[in-house]
């Protein structure tokens, strides 16, 4: 029996998801440097692609896969996949959906708390032996914060649910109203930023959200405001944010994601009041197990003709 062809976008994905060679004919893309040339010669017959969601699957590359029927991404983000082309060609696209939403939400709140309460600064203060001679200035209460959440999907809703018991005020903005949500939706993103002391960015990372946190939004948040970003780096105008941090027109930033990753951390040495993490909000052992198993399950569902889960297109 001929096995269905599965294109693996990286060796790392193969090691993590472990699609059995007894079930799939594995085509390994990273066996060659000229990826598009490889696909031009070998793309025919490939029915499925396994991707991290960060590899390029634009119109030009998808054209090299004429028999493609399913793109299974192990992440929630699909910014590198041309969803319009996929929809037009009848190619199903699945992602991680809400499988790691809880862990991303936990990390977003961790970043917020660490910045608001200056956990890193206090640690440095003790290590540098300054405690015996002076006291640090008091911080701000979490309950005193007005937290605006940008995007109330799986992650945004989980953030609000976790944050509510701490007493902070919560509001949100998204492109569509959600009548059953307990927290108020503010009519515009600029208004939400003006209201907020903390702006947590949890919007879907795709072309529709590129540059969403603009110069105007950053200005509205103001010199006492904090941006927390667990979406995608390109959702925030990074250059504008850096400039605002340097001139004091933005109070702070706590970032798990950046416009171009991985960053060279030393390039940010002169950027004040920023707390950084290497895109790890959803990276827990438990979420990895769930996400990788979910991607493999969808590959098997496609082969068996069963309905796909967490389908984006």
UniProtKB/TrEMBL annotation:
Q: Which InterPro entries match?
A: D-isomer_2-hydroxyacid_DH, D-isomer_2_OHA_DH_cat_dom, D-isomer_DH_NAD-bd, NAD(P)-bd_dom_sf
Instruction: Indicate the secretion signal residues.
Output: none
Q: Which Gene3D superfamilies match?
A: NAD(P)-binding Rossmann-like Domain (3.40.50.720)
Molecular function (GO) terms listed? glyoxylate reductase (NADPH) activity; hydroxypyruvate reductase [NAD(P)H] activity; NAD binding
Which controlled-vocabulary keywords does the entry list?
Answer: NAD, NADP, Oxidoreductase, Plasmid
- Say if the entry is tagged with keyword Oxidoreductase: yes
Could you tell me which residue ranges the D-isomer specific 2-hydroxyacid dehydrogenase NAD-binding domain spans? 109-281
A Pfam family this chain is assigned to: 2-Hacid_dh_C
GO CC annotation terms, alphabetical: cytosol
Which residues are in the D-isomer specific 2-hydroxyacid dehydrogenase catalytic domain?
32-312
Family membership: Belongs to the D-isomer specific 2-hydroxyacid dehydrogenase family.
Query: Per its record, how is this protein called by name?
Result: 2-hydroxyacid dehydrogenase
């Amino acid at each position: 029996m001929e096995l269905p062809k599965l294109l693996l976008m990286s060796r790392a994905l193969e090691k993590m998801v472990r699609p059995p060679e007894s079930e799939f004919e594995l085509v390994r893309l990273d066996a060659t440097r000229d990826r598009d040339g490889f696909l031009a010669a070998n793309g025919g017959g490939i029915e499925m692609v396994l991707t991290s969601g960060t590899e390029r699957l634009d119109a030009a590359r998808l054209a090299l896969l004429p028999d493609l029927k399913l793109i299974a991404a192990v992440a929630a983000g699909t910014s590198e996949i041309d969803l319009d082309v996929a929809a037009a060609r009848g190619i199903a696209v699945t992602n991680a959906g809400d499988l790691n939403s809880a862990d991303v939400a936990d990390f977003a709140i961790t970043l917020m708390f660490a910045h608001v309460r200056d956990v890193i600064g206090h640690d440095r203060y003790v290590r540098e032996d300054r405690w015996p001679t002076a006291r640090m200035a008091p911080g701000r209460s979490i309950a005193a914060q007005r937290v605006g959440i940008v995007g109330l999907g799986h992650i945004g809703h989980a953030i609000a649910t976790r944050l509510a018991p701490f007493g902070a005020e919560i509001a949100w903005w998204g492109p569509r109203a959600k009548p059953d949500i307990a927290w108020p939706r503010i009519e515009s993103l600029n208004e939400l930023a003006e209201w907020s002391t903390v702006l947590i960015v949890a919007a879907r990372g795709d072309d529709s959200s590129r540059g969403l946190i603009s110069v105007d939004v950053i200005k509205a948040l103001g010199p006492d405001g904090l941006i927390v970003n667990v979406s995608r780096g390109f959702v925030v105008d990074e250059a504008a944010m850096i400039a605002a941090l340097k001139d004091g027109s933005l109070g702070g930033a706590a970032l798990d994601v950046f416009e171009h990753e991985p960053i060279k951390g030393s390039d940010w040495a002169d950027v004040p009041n920023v707390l950084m993490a290497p895109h790890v909000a959803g990276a827990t052992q438990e979420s990895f197990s769930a996400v990788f198993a979910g991607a493999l399950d969808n590959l098997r569902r496609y082969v068996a003709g069963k309905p796909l889960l967490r389908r984006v297109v």
